[in-house]
Design goal:
The complex is a heterodimer of chains A (about 325) and B (about 280).
Chain A lengths: L5 H13 L5 E5 L9 H6 L4 E3 L4 H13 L3 E7 H6 L2 H10 L5 E5 L17 H6 L5 E3 L4 H13 L4 E4 L22 E4 L4 E5 L3 H14 L4 E5 L2 E3 L3 H11 L2 E8 L4 H12 L4 E6 L9 H7 L4 H14 L8
Parallel strand pairs in A: 1-2, 1-3, 3-4, 4-6, 5-6, 8-9, 8-11, 11-12
Antiparallel strand pairs in A: 5-10, 7-9
Helix pairs in contact in A: 1-7, 3-5, 8-12, 9-10
Chain B lengths: L2 H25 L4 H18 L15 E4 L5 H11 L39 H14 L6 E6 L6 H12 L5 E7 L2 E2 L2 E2 H4 L5 H7 L3 E6 L3 H12 L6 E6 L22 H19 L1
Parallel strand pairs in B: 1-2, 2-3, 3-7, 6-7
Antiparallel strand pairs in B: 4-5
Helix pairs in contact in B: 1-2, 1-3, 1-9, 2-3, 2-8, 4-5
The chains are: A alpha/beta (about 325), B alpha/beta (about 280).
Chain lengths: ~325, ~280
């Protein structure tokens, strides 16, 4: 099992690039340890800014630096970065088109045992609704690295959310099939499509394997690019597989599933079910415990997929 | 500063007031009181103090920067920028009109000469800190000026920025508090007192100066004095008069954000035109 969390892949990419590109700056809000950015701060002290526990200041300072041609990466726990700093994200980053990359660490229910104050299950909804903001939830360390390389190279604002803990690899190194803003097909299928993002991708991948053993051909998509979402992949899924199951570590309101549902209902209506966290504060517990509690795991995904297929009247061979 | 220069700046500021009044009259909305308290300082900044300002190349990297953190002060900033040549003066007539690039709050991507968007109070000083940090990192010689409203500094983020500027010893950063002592609901002292204001900034690691924010020579001098301060940021507390320049608007909170009626517009315009005639005569 992989022991490298995605946040460390972020630090590694920034360290690789910062030597040559002196416009890269990293800002933290007493979060360099939790963001795994201590090595960066040690190696590039001139390109590192510590603002203290002040997330609003963090984002606005980053915007000011970006307005002068620097490439700031501002890293802070997703729960505080996404909502405490929302005004600053809206005005100073997005509306002002300042090239700030916001790194939300320990996103979703990563800080499960710490309670709902530390959960960020509204961040997609909040940030994706701001014009000019992009939202990315990479699934594993390899994809995180590919995504970071793309974000270092481009010049528009973005929000990237990663979890706290190491996650099982979805990809093998060098084989991410990464194309910026295009969903990655993890498994081809024709009976249903499972669309997942972030840490739910590995579970969706496993669910695809479970379903395969039952003779169900599920397409599995890694929709790390929540905004701009890969519309074509969503529409192809609707047309070619007839039903879609979305899975995310986020509120059911305004997340990736909502975006998928909106596209499908407008352009190619087929059944869509959104698996997400319910409209209540998530229970406290480790990520695994919380995911299992809400059925956000491989077996839960597979069960929902089967149920959707059965209710659609499609018949599959029994094993 | 000699009298000729003072008269020249005074003429520009009076023209800016006339244009600001016209813009607000044309829009039938806008913040006139806080524009008129701030416009003399902006005039000195854009016509005397700030270096490497080029209206033909508004994004020139080594320019001094100005952040209007009190983003509703556009009825002062836009006329100042127009008079400085950043965009046509006649465009001010479209202020706040549908689809105009001159909306009610400062906007950096649409309005040439605006270095930072603002409108949500309390954020501009942080952005200015970021600009000043970038200047230090790049070894660029530019200076950053950030103007805040007095009511605005009730926002907590201002004090986050105040700490950061002190920590990083940003001697390329100058803050300005437009201390007109009035905010939308009444006096600052009633709504949320700021005093002791100087001591607050001092305790956050800033050098402070206090000036009359309508005295052109004093304004220009304080920005020169600020250049001599090393290893810390400078805060200029500018004592100003809300609505300055129009007798019936001065020190009257009702002129925070409501437009003049037709007769009020005529009276205000007559006063400002008389002032301009006196300066030109």
């Amino acid at each position: 099992m992989n022991t490298i969390p995605n946040r460390r892949a972020i630090c590694e990419t920034l360290m690789e690039k910062a030597g040559q590109d002196k416009t890269i700056v990293v800002l933290c809000s007493d979060s360099r340890g939790s963001a795994s950015l201590e090595p960066f701060a040690q190696a590039y002290p001139q390109q590192f800014v510590e603002v203290g526990i002040a997330e609003q200041d963090l984002v606005s300072i980053a915007a000011g630096m970006a307005s002068c041609g620097l490439k700031p990466f501002a890293a802070s726990p997703a729960c505080f970065l996404s909502t405490r700093s929302l005004e600053q994200i809206k005005v100073d980053v997005a509306y002002s088109q300042n090239n700030v990359k916001l790194i939300g660490i320990s996103g979703g229910i990563s800080y499960g045992p710490l309670g709902m104050t530390h959960h960020s299950t509204q961040d997609i909804a909040c940030i994706a609704s701001i014009p000019g903001m992009r939202v990315y939830l990479p699934s594993d360390r390899h994809q995180t690295k590919c995504l970071m390389e793309a974000l270092v190279a481009d010049d528009s604002p973005a929000y990237l959310r990663v979890g706290r803990n190491p996650v099982e690899d979805v990809y093998t190194s060098g084989q991410c099939n990464f194309v910026m803003d295009k969903a990655t097909v993890l498994q081809q299928g024709k009976d249903i499509t499972i669309i997942a993002c972030g840490e739910m991708v590995r579970e969706a991948q496993k669910a695809g394997e479970i379903l395969k053993q039952k003779g169900i051909s599920a397409r599995v998509l890694d929709m790390y690019c929540v905004k701009p979402i890969d519309r074509q992949a969503v529409l192809d899924a609707a047309r070619e597989t007839g039903s879609i199951l979305t899975v995310e570590e986020h509120s059911a309101f305004g997340g990736m599933g909502s975006i998928v549902s909106q596209i499908v209902s407008t352009c190619c209506p087929v059944p869509v079910v959104n698996m997400a966290l319910p409209d209540q504060p998530a229970i406290a517990g480790t990520s695994r415990q919380v995911f299992d509690y809400y059925g956000l795991n491989a077996s839960g995904i597979a069960e929902n997929a089967e149920r959707m297929i059965k209710s659609s009247g499609k018949i599959y061979p029994e094993h | 500063m000699d009298n000729v220069k003072i008269r020249e700046l005074s003429k520009i500021a009076t023209k800016a007031r006339i244009l600001g009044l016209d813009a607000i009259h044309s829009a039938n909305s806008g913040h006139i009181g806080g524009a008129f308290s701030a416009v003399d300082i902006m005039t000195v900044l854009f016509f005397e103090t700030m270096r490497n300002i080029d209206p033909k190349n508004p994004k020139q990297p080594n320019r001094d920067r100005f952040v209007l953190s009190k983003g509703h002060g556009t009825a002062a900033l836009y006329p100042t920028l127009a008079l400085r040549g950043f965009f046509p003066i006649e465009d001010l007539k479209t202020f706040r009109h549908i689809d105009s690039y001159l909306s009610g709050h400062a906007e950096m991507n649409h309005v040439p000469g605006v270095d930072m968007s603002a409108g949500s109070l309390g954020q501009g000083l942080s952005a200015a800190v970021g600009m000043a940090l970038a200047g230090k990192l790049d070894h660029a010689g530019y200076r950053v000026y950030a103007m805040m409203g007095d009511g605005e500094i009730q926002e907590g983020q201002i004090w986050e920025a105040a700490m950061a500027a002190g920590k990083y010893k940003l001697d390329n950063l100058v803050g300005i508090v437009d201390y007109n002592r009035l905010q939308i609901d009444g006096t600052v002292a009633e709504v949320m007192p700021l005093e002791p204001l100087k001591e607050k900034w001092k305790s956050f690691g800033w050098e402070t100066f206090e000036i009359d924010g309508h005295d052109y020579a004093a304004i220009a001098q304080v920005f020169e004095d600020a250049k001599q301060i090393k290893n810390k940021p400078v805060m200029v507390i500018a004592n100003t008069v809300k609505g300055k320049g129009v007798s019936f608007m001065e020190n009257n909170v009702n002129w925070h954000g409501h437009p003049p009626a037709e007769d009020e517009y005529q009276r205000a315009m007559a006063e400002l035109k008389k002032a301009l005639e006196d300066l030109e005569g």
